[in-house]
Amino acid sequence: MKSVTVVGSGPSGVHFALGLLKRGLAVHLIDAGLEGARAVARDATASGLKSVLEDPIDYFLGRDLYGLALPGADGELYGFPPQKQFVFERPEGLEETSRGFEPLSSWAAGGLARAWTAGVYPFTEEELAEFTFGFQDLLPHYEEVADRIGVIGEHDDLSSFMPWHAGIDAPLRLDATSASLLGRYAKARTRLRTKLGCHVGRSRLAVLSRDRLDRQGCGYLNRCLWGCPVGALYTPDMTLEQCRRYDGFTYEPGLLAEAFDLDENRRATRLRVRRLDGGGEEHRPVEELALATGTLSTARLFLTSWLEATGERPALEGLMDNRQVLVPFVHLPRVGRRFEDSAYQYHQLSMGLPGDAPEEYVHGQITTLTSAQAHPIMETMPFDLRTAGYVFRNARAALGLVNLNFHDRRRETCKVSID
Questions:
Q1: Around 208, how many Cα atoms within 13 Å sit in the side-chain half-sphere?
Q2: For residues 19 and 44, is the Cβ–Cβ distance under 8 A?
Q3: SS3 of 233, please?
Q4: Cβ–Cβ < 8 Å for 68, 57
Q5: Fewest beta carbons less than 10 Å away: which of 187, 252, 316, 397?
Q6: Contacts of 363 (CB under 8 A, 6+ apart)
Q7: What is the pLDDT of residue 71?
């Protein structure tokens, strides 16, 4: 049986591995595989946890107060809680320096998608114009992935930017603020589309709106940020568990891939790994090698291996880095309303703004912050604590955030290299 060694358990790694296993190949997946704590009190809402947990402060803020936003600290309107800290932990000996952008890497089982907001958007024909394949070529694969992970959405005004395909299930129940925003868009739809080019609709999400296979549908528990306790929000470790059911699959966590050896034909023959528990370096023979450790970590592996094999130290040009702008807003009709403790926490609405060319499309995700942690927002208010608490309680149901994602092109000046 032909064997393939896959490095990395992020979305590309686990789905590539599953595809190979379904074709009868053997797969050995090597991974750092950092893990966090298991979900607690699976049926409790975020507010309900305060009365269920023995130590809610430890859960929400961490013993070292990791989840606390301190005055003067840089951060967003909501940061990552202690339960997600493992996603961003960095093994010793790995350092990055950057100029002009903020690199984000993960060595967790499942990769950065263990802390994502589940937005899944297919490429259009225009966006794939410079590739050797188009949307129609990818269509059956989009449908297969949608069947694997569970994708929800609606055929609406955003479908021209996010092509519709089979396998998409009905969307979630909207929270009150999102429903109000969508209703106001419907009334002003013609003016917004014709004069401003603004299209609003339902986000395409890797979330279950109903029970499916061995996962439960969304329970509207307001715990997305801390990690979905019922498995409705897809993360790649779920596909990793599917891979484990195949006899030809082996998973070896606790290893950091350092480099690979090349033969005279420049084919990988051995993979050098380092044990994270301090057990030293080892060399593993490989029949076929697939690197699936994200853009920056895969670049590190390739560049290190190339340097050791040839003595050359090239720079990989054309790194893409789409800029993002976070725009907070207050939806005035919801000021003074009671916030919802039973809702899906991340974005349910998206907006599309076409550019001068199809590839210059700007995508926005609209998140209502009805269940955001209070202290990061209150800390930024120009009031004393008592006044800030009063304002936040009355504005909480009206707060929101638009995450605008701008386009990018390959640029020679944007590059990655190793020291």
A1: 22
A2: no
A3: strand
A4: no
A5: 187
A6: 121, 161, 350, 351, 352, 353, 404, 405
A7: 63
H or E segment to which residue 329 belongs: strand 324-330
- Residue 222: CB atoms within 10 A of its CB come to 24
CA 126 → CA 134, 135, 255, distances in Å? 8, 9, 40
Segment (H or E) for 405: strand 399-405
Which pLDDT band, with edges at 50, 70 and 90, does 373 fall under? low
Helix (H, G, I), strand (E, B) or coil at 367: strand
Residue 131 is given by DSSP the state S
Amino acid making up residue 156:
D
At 18, is the secondary structure helix, strand, or coil? helix
Spatial CB neighbours of 88, under 8 Å, sequence gap ≥ 6:
80, 104, 106, 115
Contact 417/318 with Cβ under 8 angstroms?
no
List pLDDT tens digits, range 43-57: 898 888 888 998 888
Q: Residue 277: which region, alpha, beta or left (left: phi > 0; alpha: psi -120 to 50)?
A: alpha
Question: What is the predicted pLDDT for the residue at 70?
Answer: 65
Choose among 250, 257, 238: nearest CA to 149.
238
The string over 176-197, giving b where at least 16 C-beta atoms fall within 10 Å of a residue's C-beta and e elsewhere, is: bbbebbbeebeeeeeebeeeee
**Can you tell me the distance from the alpha carbon of 359 to that of 393, in angstroms, rounded to the nearest whole number?**
41
Mean pLDDT throughout 26-31? 97
The DSSP element (H or E) to which 366 belongs, if any, is strand 362-368
Q: Which two tokens stand for residue 91?
A: 């093994």
So what's the pLDDT on residue 205?
Answer: 97
Residue with tokens 């076929």, as numbered in its chain? 288
CA pair distance 327, 348, nearest whole angstrom: 16
106 or 98, higher pLDDT: 106
Contact (CB, 8 A) for 89 and 32: no
Tokens of 299: 């670049």
And the tokens for 385? 């604590």
Amino acid at position 176, single letter: A
Question: How many C-beta neighbours within 10 Å does residue 387 have?
Answer: 12
d(Cα 231, Cα 206) in Å, to the nearest integer?
A: 11
The residue length of the chain stands at 419
CA separation for the pair 129, 139 (Å, rounded): 15
pLDDT average, residue stretch 180-189: 96
